[in-house]
Amino acid sequence: MDVRAEELRAIDDMIFGDAAGVAQASDQLREALDAIRTALNERRFGDAARARSNTATPVSQSCASVGNA
What's the predicted TM-score (pTM) here? Predict the structure, then answer.
C-alpha cells in the first residue's frame, strides 16, 4: 500500500506542478497581449512587433520538462 501511496503522491505533485506552469504561462500571455494591445492602440507598430518577441518563451524552453516528467 505504501508504494501505491507514493506513486499517487508523485502524480499529485506532477499535476500541481503542471497547473502552476499553465497559470504562469497564462499570466505571461496576458502580459504580452496587454503590451501589444497598448502599442497598437498608440499606433506604435514596431513596439507591438517587438513586444511579442521580447515576452515569448521559446517552445523548446517551455516544453523542455515534458520528456522528464
Answer: 0.59
